[in-house]
Amino acid sequence: MTAGGLAAPGARAVLCGTGSHVHGSELPDLPSVDTTLDDLRRTLIDVCGMDPGRVVRVPADAGAAEVVDAVEEASAAGGGPVLFSFVGHGLLGPRDDLYLATRATRSARHLARSVSYRTVRDLLGAGGNGSLVVLDCCFSGRGGTPPSEGGARRAFASAAPRGSFLLSSASHYALSFAPEGEPHTLFTGRLLGLLHEGDPAGPPLLSADRLHAALDEAFADDPRVDPARRSEGTLGSLVLARNRAYPPHPIGSGTAERPADLPCPYPGLEPYRAEDSAHFFGREELTDRLIERIEEMPDGGQAVLVGASGAGKSSLLRAGLLAGREDRTTSPGPALLLPAPGPHPFRTLAEAWAGATGRDAGEVRAELERGRFPAPSRGRPVCRLLVVDQFEEIFTRCDTPDERAAFVSLLTGDGPGPRPRIVLGLRADHYGSCLEHPGLRRALARAQFTVPPLHERELRAIVERPAAAVGMTVEPGLTDLLLHDLRAGRSANDTATALPFLAHSLRETWRGRSGAVLTLAGYRATGGIWQSVATATRRVYESLDDDGRTMMRRLLLCLVHLPPDGGGAVLRHRVPFGALPSGSDTIRDQLAGERLLTVDQDTAQIAHEALLRAWPLLREWIQEDAAVLLLRQQLGTAAGEWEAAGRDAAFLYRGSRLQAAAELDDQEELSEPEREFLAAGQAAATSELRRERRRTTLLKRALAAVAVALCLALVAAVVAVRQQRSAERQQRVATARALLAEANGLGTSDPRTALRLGLAAYALRPGADARRSLFDTLAGSAFRGVSEVPVTTTADPVLAPGGEMLATRDEDGLTVWDTGRDPVPRTPLARLACPRPKDDRGDSVAFGGPGGRMLAAVCGDGEVRLWNLADSSKGDRPRPLAALRAQRTKAAPAGPTALAVSPDGVTVAAIGWSRHVRGAVVLWDVSDPRAPRQLPFTEATWPPRGSMHGDRAVFSPDGRLLATADTHGDLRLWDVSDPRSPRPRGTVEDAGGALAFRPDGELLAVSRDRVVELVDIRDPGDPKVLDERTAHRDLVSSLDFSPDGRRLASAGWDRSVALWDVTDPRDMADEARLYGHSGFVHTTRFGANGRSLVSAAYGEVIHRDLSDVHPPRVLDVLPDGGELALAPDGTTLAVARGARIGLWDLSDPSAPRRLAELDNPVEDRYATVDGGFTIGTGDVLDDIDFSFDGTLLAAMNHDREVTLWDVRDPARPRVAGTVSGAHQGAVNPTLDFAPGRPLLAVNDLANVSVWDVSDPALPALTASTTPTYLRDVVFAPDGRRLLLVGTGLSLWDLSTDRTTPLSGDTHFYGGGARAAFSRHGDVVAAVASVPTADERPEVRVDLWDAGKDGAGHAPGATEPMDTYRARFAQLSFHPDGRLLAGAGRDGTVRLWSVADPERPHLAYSFSGHREGVDEVVLGGPHGRTMITTSAGLAYVADLGAYPETAADTLGMACRAAGGGLTREEWEEQVPEAEFVRSCPAEP
């Protein structure tokens, strides 16, 4: 049974009725009634999961008063819904009211001793906890539903369901039936059958609504019963029981089913409500601590819940705190929730408090403003807890400082009279605002409660447990994919505040469910966690026509509030329906249906700030209309003041204020008072202003007509070109697309085949889509090649530490392969004589010793042979160092079953010798291999459960511990610091699988069937399991830690290798899942550098580059991020903002180290009121750059003053010189150093000058030019030409002083974008604005060939993008010229692979920024680093192997796949096309 519904802890039931009546009664006996009610009670307990103590069976001989008492007691108890069931005679009284017969009822005419159903109904309605009524009696259709508002109780927050539900056996005046001789009445008997046996056609959970539908179907052909229902509120969806007849959907069957009729347990962008607490998981510990904190507070005490937007504060307050208090018997009384203070917090609180206390709102407000919380009216409960959510609104929406201060004093003071305990929910970014108020400072100091980020275990609970609560299952792999997507390419802050995105993507996944299963396909259809909100919003937007889209824009902007102080937009801002644009109702309802808006009876608001982060178009609208929004808000305030002043003309707008307001000429956007206010002001305006408006409007229309004509002409030209394609080309395109579709479908599950099909597609049709398919497969799978290794037996292969060697066994011996090379050479390193033992089980082959170059194996009849393979690479045939036999072992015919060699190569351990009795541990000292010594024999002494069958053994890195494990038993630790007397230490139960020590020896990874556990062994005598995860769908076969101990690799029989982040061993996180093997994966090892991985199955070895496991991700965040410059060696980074420049050492990009912080010289400095200072606008830095040798750093400010810093010692920079000019006050001037030459180009947007700075103290002007329009200047790689970027591109040759157009008439996007010149080759990238037929220009990046002959042409371009989504502040090439980055104003950095300039393709979209990206540079010490700036911060990100993959995508794909399709494979895979070589080196 689920935790909600009738199984909820507070749910109660009252069952009443009688089968017989007093002597002389005219009512006939109904013997089946008593049996029916007794069985119903058992069913409610056994099937529905109700608490037996809360199911009341009113005695059959009870009178009317006892029935009423039972109903009244259940209703007053609260805490959950109340089920009332009556079976028996129903009677009609005055006004045809329904009465329920008792045993004392004498006839249908004598009703004095019967129960008035009206009384029962009113009592149930007064409780306010939701009620479900089942009437099985004649005339039951005359019964109405109990009142659903719950009286005064509904003013308080409660987790109890709202509403009421009536299920009756008859409609209106119809009779009911109790067949003679049957154990149950006809109606309730069928109801019991449905609860016990289930409904084959129903959903997994039976709700009240579904029960009625099933009963209606059951009695469709039976005229004796006519089931009827009436419902108010949400009680119809109340879960009664699991449907025992529901057929489970076979997970992973691949067949989609019709979505099951199940409630959605995920709230989307809205917070969980108190009544949603049955679906609220992941915050149980935090909820308990919060409730305990509140219960410990005295009356009148305050606590502040602080958390970032998107961390789940509102859900924690509602579904956690408010719902959790009701489950505790010590709850101090009802609680009142104030969802948000609003612009007038006193009025908002007064209205809510008046509803709870039954007092007049005006009277309540007056009391509150005097600092007192009014007592409730007589008979009303006392509010013991006040929760104020979104408390930050007193700073963002309350514009009156006096009201704000008074409201804070009310909540934090100690005014007269009783006071509730108070909990405030505060967004963390308004923490500083609270510190300005003494009362809030005290509250924060006394009881601040922080909402921390969720751990992986809690995130899994958020995904999986709500689904289980409503009877759904989650397809295997979906949770792992969700958690991977949650972190991929995101900063830790984004991940910590991503709950709205996660909940929305889960809700969208629920919409695409298959039967009762949340599927991977359903999730992928949402676009992923970070795109699901944008996908849903875009779905609504794109479903509308042009007028609808305009209306949607007006509606959403109406729901946005901009603080007058210039702060960020406030979205959760309730707006009355009357203030919304006229005619927006349909779109409003559409957005509410998508859970993007929250709508109540008379107001609407955007569901969460996440919409602003997720949908760039809304951000664009807000930025474009910011001035209009502020004007509109000011207009609304002015109109209110005008109305309050009796429409005094002195309050009307005049002059410039009226002119600004008059631009809001679309009257439908204004409310009626605003219209009248504006009309009154306009009536006094001059006719000249009206004429100016008309001229402006006509000009706009004319320009729009010209733009439309231009777009239509361009579209016509594109269509004409497309029509010239030949039929032959279309066939090749179709075949290539089919191959690409198949390759993309295989993706990372079979990377080798995917690569070979992608190569074939590229051979047929070279293009960006084929290159991207190859790139994505390489980047997403880490696959770098598979090698075949001949095997003749089924013995498990064994890899050496570091993955350098592989040992396989055949009947006669061992073969050692060189797996340190890719591909693995077909000639083995060595063949070793070692007959296969008769009972080859466990780890009978083991590598160890220094560098893992020693090999031990059990041979023949149990002899252990030892080899040194250190010189095997020279081709020498290794000989055994020693042959070891155990002496003095008992019951020895089975021989050893597992071996281990100590890291120093001095000790060999063997375990086993018996499969039926206690095993043995034998140690040999092989420090002198010519004379090995067996150390004292140790026999196992632990109970039979722990007896060793000897399957696994491994030494700790320092050789002082030995771990032994049995597949069918436990793990045992041994202290072998003195090998002559090993001592047994602690055990771990049920951990008898694979073993691996972390390099520091403090942590041990173990497996149990499909589960991996992390064990703390710092105290070997008391090992503790820190965390565990289900790692594979089949047996875990191998474990290995990375050299730095931060990663764990697990291999499994499900043909996969899993990577785990074990930085926090208490919360191991699934990092990646690697596929490609055709059979069970038996062993896996990290490379010595930790960046590679080798895995082996029967007959095959796969090499992987783990740099590709992660997509680009943020490593660190630096302060003061505005302008960027990276020194040529990639290790020194300059970050500037204002006049401050920070120099950072990027030798280790994961831990940047500050070298120096310098202040650029300034001319204007102004004191501020807080004792600080600010600089003049002209002193703000606009661009910085390093010289070609990294010895100079040039910094240029608004006034085009260039300061040259000597940074030969970056820890001690000094001013070396300056360059000044006459053009001051330029907006965004730029500069650029020449590659290989001491030249500096300075662009002040009016003039370009080139300076020789070989002597920084005396810069010399060498050339200058004055273009007509200029945005940027960039030196060519030869250092002799300068790219001039304006509306077009041109090259200025400094040696001839001649300027040559490069781009012709192409017009580039003029929003501040800069072009980029590849440092290798003559490729120029520039952002172009491309007109389209629908008048909305698209953006793309054109790649130009800037050959030295001066004849430029554009060989390729990226795919066009919508200008609303892509506006670029900067372009930047990777130093090798194969990867291009674009810094987007939408907060996304797009990376393109441009190794083939004719076929560029998008490689990755890095969306880890909340605001627009200002700068981006690529490079770093290993060429794998990207640095960006956004919102005043600099982000250092790891690109992984993306640069290498982009540089040689085709070659890498050919090497990894082992070549393209052979001629025979081509004929099978591509019969419709002639054979084409896929890889250049193939014959």
Task: Explain this structure.
The chain has 1483 residues and is α+β, with helices and mostly antiparallel strands. Helix content is 26%, strand content 27%. It contains 33 helices and 81 strands. The strands form 21 sheets. A six-stranded mixed beta sheet has the order 2-1-3-7-8-10, with helices on both faces. Helix 6 packs across helix 7 and helix 28 packs antiparallel against helix 29. About 1% of the residues have low confidence.
Which features would summarize this protein structure in a list?
1483 residues; six-stranded mixed sheet; 33 helices; 81 strands; 26% helix; globular
Strands in their spatial order, largest beta sheet? 2-1-3-7-8-10
Could you tell me the number of beta strands?
81
Bulk shape: globular
Assembly state (oligomeric): single chain
Radius of gyration: 38 Å
Biggest pleated sheet? 6 strands, mixed
Share of residues in helices? 25-40%
> Structural class, from helix and strand content?
alpha+beta
As a percent range, the share of strand residues is 25-35%
**Average of per-residue pLDDT values:** 81
Point out poorly predicted stretches: 149-154, 941-950
- Give the number of helices: 33
- Quote the distance from N terminus to C terminus: 66 Å
